[in-house]
Amino acid sequence: MSLQKMVDAHPQVQDKTEELVLAARHAMLCSLFCTSCADACVAEMSGSDMDMSQCIRNCLDCADVCAATARLATRRTAQNIDVLRSQLETCIKACETCAEECEKHDNDHCRWCAKMCRECADDCRKALPLVQ
User: CB–CB of 35/63 below 8 Å?
Assistant: First the structure.
């Protein structure tokens, strides 16, 4: 199933949406990566003296922002461009913040999460010019 085809099937979609749909798709994935990373951080803290609380918080915040971004980016009826633009900008900031924190930790789940966050932020940046 293609998210692009779903958005293109909307009766009010008349413009190019590839960048916005790609940002929405990456935001959905990023939300899942961040949720998984936060859960893995909780497991790492169990029985250790590691404090992963900042990483967990950043991952959970990013997961929520990314999930909201994906939903807003796929809604096409009576768009609220100012809100969508603000949401994309917030997603970029949340992803960058999460990536910076995850890059401080030497484990695979944080490395993968940081990589996904960076990709999501890049895609949201590419979508911003479409939202005018």
Answer: yes
